[in-house]
Amino acid sequence: MKYNRILLKLSGESLMGKQSYGIAPEMLTQYANDIKAVVEKGVEVAIVIGGGNIFRGLSGASKGMDRVQGDYMGMLATLINSMALQAELEKQGLKTELLGGLAIEPICKEMSRRRAIEAMQAGRVVIIGGGTGNPFFTTDTASTLRAIEIKADVILKGTRVDGVYTADPEKDPSAVKYPTLSFQEALGKKLKIMDLTAFALCEENKLPIYVFDMNRPGNLLKVVSGEEIGTLVS
Fold first, then answer.
1. Helix or strand or coil: residue 44?
2. The pLDDT of residue 155
3. How many CB atoms lie within 10 A of CB 182?
């Protein structure tokens, strides 16, 4: 395996599947299958999921809601998604540990580096919900922070497209995919891979980001095995 310990970042929107809201059971099943395949190869897995399929703090703030209150609501949305994925993984026979930026008994214990690493070393899939536990930080930043804390080899950013392009490939058919990018190139070209706080943390800590299409079954195992099917930012 090319990577031995990964932080998989999933967007909340990806859990909607073809729905316009909520969680599509078929997406949960597919993701759990793919995660199980890499765990069975001995890879240690931590996961951070966004909450945009349920609630976004920023969209609440744009409609006049208090930003801090909205962000906490968004954190709870990430925990709902995390619990849904946890249930599906356990249904498929995997052991899991749900940790949170916010401790909510009896759902999850508070995230700590030691707790997460010990769980992964014991063969459990660690799911970290609740963002950083602080308002004004995105789940991109949360996933970067958690990846650094647990000493992950890479952040695998699972999206609906198979890498980073010169333009949005869903809107521009002439868009060209980048196989690799440096952090400086990505910043210079203003490519929206992650928010600037997350990006700065990755660059400062020499943590690579691999962007790939998570919605194609089997792709996660291909990435972890070293197949070049997405875009590596390092």
1. strand
2. 98
3. 12
Task: Please name the residue that has the structure tokens 């203003």.
Answer: 190
Is pLDDT at 96 greater than 80 in this prediction? yes
Q: Which residues contact 154 (CB under 8 A, 6 or more apart)?
A: 3, 6, 7, 147, 207, 208, 209, 210
- Determine if the peptide bond prior to 169 is cis (ω within 30°): no
Separation between Cα atoms, residue 132 and residue 148, nearest integer Å = 13
CB hemisphere CA count around 82 (13 angstroms): 31
Q: What is the pLDDT of residues 193-210, one digit of tens each?
A: 898 899 899 999 999 999
Locate tokens 């214990």: which residue?
A: 109
Residue of 179, 172, 183 lying closest to 211 (CA atoms) = 179
pTM of the model: 0.94
- Percent of the chain that is helix, strand, coil (3-state, to 5): 40, 20, 40
Q: pLDDT (tens digit, 9 = 90+) per residue, 105-142?
A: 999 999 999 999 999 999 999 999 999 999 999 999 99
Between CA 56 and CA 33 the distance in angstroms is 27
